[in-house]
Amino acid sequence: MRDLAALDLLIRLRKDIEKMNAIDIRNKFLNYFKSKGHTIIPSAPLIPENDPSVLFTTAGMHPLVPYLLGEKHPAGTRLADYQKCLRTVDIDEVGDNRHLTFFEMLGNWSLGDYFKEQSINYSIEFLTKELNIPMEKLSVTCFAGDNDAPRDEETASIWQSVGMPKERIYYFGKDDNWWIAGDEGPCGPDTEIFYDTGKEPCGPHCDPSCGCGKYVEIWNNVFMEYYKSKDGTYTKLKQQNVDTGLGLERINMLLQGKETPFDTEIFKPMMDKLKELSKNDNLQSRRIVAEHLRSSMMIIADGGKPSNIDRGYILRRLIRRMIRHLNKLEIDLNYLQDLIELNFQILGEMYPELIQNKENIINTIIEEKNKFVKTLENGQRELQKELNKLRENNIDTLSAETAFKLYETYGFPPEVTNEIAKESNFKVDLDGFDKLFKEHQEKSRLGSEQKFKGGLADQTEETIAYHTATHLLHKALQIVLGEHATQKGSNITQERLRFDFAHPQKVTKEELDEVERIVNEQIKRDLKVTCEEMSYDEAVKSGAMGLFTNKYGDRVKVYTIGDFSKEICGGPHVEHTGVLGTFKIKKEEASSAGVRRIKAVLIK
Ligand code: SER
């Protein structure tokens, strides 16, 4: 009888493993670390809050940097989370069997709490006991040591103590076993855990560093006890931290015995649907569409909007590249909305923010598609003409200037130009393109700063009052419409204010009334307006709003209006909101795609 019960349990366990998917793995992870005294914290948005230094959150440690440096985290010293991440360096590689732009990283954190031993014990217990991965499938790497930090023999011996045989413990240098985000910041040696797929070794020296696909990295435990300064020197941090990252799509794929993430439940239904709709199937294009659609939807859910600069430009590129590949697949673009809806079904449980932002996501993607489609055909024709010219002259590279012209005139992102050129065996001077693009952005930025300056040069009592009212309006819009309603432009005269802000649809009468009511309430409260000077970093840390895509100098002024608003701004402002009179919205209209415009007056 007992044997039967054991068999039954085994069968149930097997079934459990078989049907385990990404969301189960995520839950198992969070529950496991919760049982080890970790507080579960929510994923930070993909678009970092108040951090203009990076476009997107690229690793779980981003939102935690202040705490790794020693600031006290309100949730304690042991944390675990899942973090939405986006990395765009490999955008051109998407379409192969492994690259993704958006991915989820599971992480556990010690902020000056446990260190190497505990961290390795947790990882190995989770992998072998919770996910039931046999120890024989795993191997690990440790830091080999250099002038900056010693060889990490301590970590290697901890691995041995938990049963990892010496032959499967490898040492590598900084390129493989040291982790830092960018050039400066908290960092340290790491130990990486690899899963052996069982494939044949690629040669006698096949090991986890060779990248042939036999070994797949699944978990990275970083022992962050150093700080690397801009000048390249390393100092010890106040505390020893652990930062770990376990790639969810990857572990999910391995546990399901699949070759690529596109074969798992995260992408499979979309891949199948694309196949069904396609009249000219090719796997690479289907992967690009499935991947870029998911990433675009995630970015929009976190407040992203297509534009020609920074984050918006990445989103624009993802959507446009996806459109081109839908065309390549000969899928009617009228199906795009169905595909978006399908992703709500596939991903809605994992990311409820998708469902909460349904309308906005659909509208934004469809609008961007419509814009691109208008110029796509003409742009392709123009590009073919240019390629023909090159062919006649025996030149194999399309110039940066031509690529830039295609971008400016037809909205062609460089990778779209590059892909089309590549199909006819031409190269594109992409470095040159980047240079031109940066120069162009710099020019338009200077232009808009000039305009901004002009707008505020007129400092009469009226314009100063409108300026303060603009801050109240900005905050009120964020309260009523959501945090995505950020400033896109402002223009003040003695007679009125005009304020542009991000919002995907018309603001309703009720919403406008509520905005008006909130602003007038703050005026009635006669809030004190104060100004402080501080470094830009301090300002963003203090939670001040600002135009984060623009460059500020090192020291900035922060204007605080009572307990209501805090914004980086040059001023000047009134001293008390009571002097503003009555705030009245006169008009609400579209300004450009995804941007609304409000005109309002103050009645004394
Ligand atoms: N920061 C490390 C990584 O991104 C571990 O989370 O791999």
The number of helical runs is 19
Structural class: alpha+beta
Beta-strand percent range: 15-25%
For this structure, what is the CATH homologous superfamily of the largest domain?
Answer: Bira Bifunctional Protein, Domain 2
Q: Characterize the biggest β-sheet.
A: 9 strands, mixed
Spatial gap, N to C terminus: 88 Å
The gyration radius over C-alpha positions equals 27 Å
Shape: globular
What do these coordinates show?
- The structure is a single chain.
- This protein has 604 residues and is an alpha+beta fold.
- It has 4 domains: 2-259, Bira Bifunctional Protein, Domain 2 (BirA Bifunctional Protein, domain 2); 265-379, no CATH class; 396-456; 461-603, Threonyl-tRNA Synthetase, Chain A, domain 2 (2-Layer Sandwich).
- The chain has 19 helices and 18 strands.
- Strands 1, 2, 3, 4, 5, 6, 7, 8 and 9 form a 9-stranded mixed beta sheet that branches. It has a 4-stranded antiparallel beta sheet with strand order 12-13-18-17. A 3-stranded antiparallel beta sheet has the order 14-15-16.
- Residues 447-458 and 548-552 have low confidence and may be disordered.
Summarize it:
The protein has 604 residues and is α+β, with helices and mostly antiparallel strands.
Comma- or semicolon-separated keywords:
single chain; 604 residues; alpha+beta; BirA Bifunctional Protein, domain 2; 4 domains; nine-stranded mixed beta sheet; four-stranded antiparallel beta sheet; 18 strands; globular; binds serine
Which secondary structure elements does this structure contain, and how are they paired or packed?
Elements: H1 2-18, H2 22-35, E1 39-40, H3 65-68, E2 78-86, E3 102-111, H4 116-130, E4 138-143, H5 153-161, E5 169-172, H6 174-177, E6 178-180, E7 185-196, E8 215-228, E9 234-247, H7 248-255, H8 268-277, H9 283-301, H10 310-328, H11 336-347, H12 352-356, H13 358-392, E10 397-398, H14 400-410, H15 414-423, E11 427-428, H16 430-457, H17 461-481, E12 487-492, E13 497-502, H18 509-524, E14 529-535, H19 536-541, E15 555-561, E16 565-568, E17 582-592, E18 595-603
Parallel strand pairs: 1-2, 4-5, 10-11
Antiparallel strand pairs: 2-3, 3-9, 4-7, 6-7, 7-8, 8-9, 12-13, 13-18, 14-15, 15-16, 17-18
Helix pairs in contact: 4-5, 8-11, 9-10, 9-13, 10-13, 11-13, 13-14, 14-16, 17-18
The protein binds serine.
